[in-house]
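Protocol step 4 of 5: obtain the predicted structure for the target chain.
Materials: sequence only (see below). No template structures provided, no constraints applied. The aim of this step is simply to have a reference model before the mutagenesis design in step 5. Sequence pasted as it appears in the construct record:
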Amino acid sequence: MTRPEFITLFNVEVDKASSDALIDFGLDICERLLPKYASFSKNHSWGDVEVLKNSIDFCKRSKGFDQNNFEIQNYLDKVEPNIPDMDDFGDFDGSYALNASCAVYELLEYLCDGDVSHIFNISTYMTDTIDFELSEADPNLTDEELENHKDIIIEWTYQLGLLANTIEN
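Step 4 output (structure tokens):
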């Protein structure tokens, strides 16, 4: 599967998915990225993991309900200062934490405005994290090797399956 093929299939699945299914999709990725943020926070003594956890829990509770944008904004305001600046944390840990915190932020934004571009961004944060991990493990991998790496394709397949399964359930 190539990236353009993934994007086409992803868009088809997103178009068929309910709002709750898209929230579940985002939650899955946010929860898988959270340990990266926790590791960064511990290693750099920076950031508040509990803010991200609480925001994820809020998103879980929000499924099936219209949320008050004021309440969502409150969570967005708490997450934003916990997003690391790459000028301060330019290492791989910082990149992982950036992706994890931005995924949570995007999920909150999706709750606020229902724009599915946030779901695509969450997907990208996950695949970028895998890309960074692969680059960290082998700095000699080319962009083409990274894009066609089995770990990226496994993630794309997982994401498509997650969307398809949430539609069926």
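Step 4 remarks: Helices lie at 3-16, 19-44, 49-62, 69-79, 92-113, 117-137, 143-147, 150-168. The radius of gyration is 16 Å.
Proceed to step 5.
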